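not sure who needs this but someone in the group chat was asking about Transcription regulator from Streptosporangium roseum so here u go. i didnt clean anything up, its just raw.
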Amino acid sequence: MARVVFLLIPSIHLLDVAGPAQVFSTAADLGHTYKLVYVSAEQDVATVQGLPLRAQTQWPELDADDLIVVPGWRGPVRMPDAGTFARLRDHHATGGTLAGVCAGADALGRAGLLDGRRCTTHHTVQDELARLYPKAHVVRDALYVADERVVTSAGVASGIDVALHLLSVRHGPRAAGQVARTMVVHAHRDGAARQISMMFRHRSHVDETVHRVQDLIDTRFTERLPLSLLARTASCSERTVTRLFRDATGMTPLAYQTVLRLERAEHLITQGATTETAARDVGYEDARMLRRLRARTGARATR
């Protein structure tokens, strides 16, 4: 049975703990053998939201199949002692995986696990992370980044994405999808997705029919999605799905898909991809359409 050990630091954020914990707890309910363990320097751990948590003060014996998760907190706080950081380093050195949610990346940095690795954190403190750990490569505006069994994330809800990613790596995408559906998570987001993306900006409405259409577009935006397919997904006519989508989001389904493609292509280009490669990756047969879209939106010059 694999253990998921949560290192709880005072002034911790509840969702940074609860999101990943719910993922692995649900995975256990569905037949994957996980045991959740919560450790801290003291039994009672204060949370930012006011609900105290109870943890054990002794670490279990760990092996390479076990995970350590360090949820984020609101600082400045009293950090773990040097022995705890040594424990984090030792777990990685023996083949174990560690995940830092939001400010949890700071604890991994203090343990020396970010040096020479790609990492991320919440967009409001990315500059601070880069300043504290100049040997790390901070990836801007990513939901999560995995590099040699060290995973870091933007925090809050992205802790769920990290946990689903780890499940997918261990048990395959079907298992992660089962957990996501059980948790009523709309989609397992790619770690490279922007922290503040189109998927978030146009999800504040309450039209469940449009949400179903958006779910389809979000997960298959690189494909050709005829309006007839969207209409079948929405169980209504093509004219109705267009009207409902425009009323809820202010744009047509095609315009929404186009922005998702452009947003993803921009991310790929900022990470070093050529315009031609990015165009293919987001579903365009050649780069001419992508160049026109980027020029129209004032994007950076093409490579």
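also The chain has two domains: 2-182, 197-303. if thats useful
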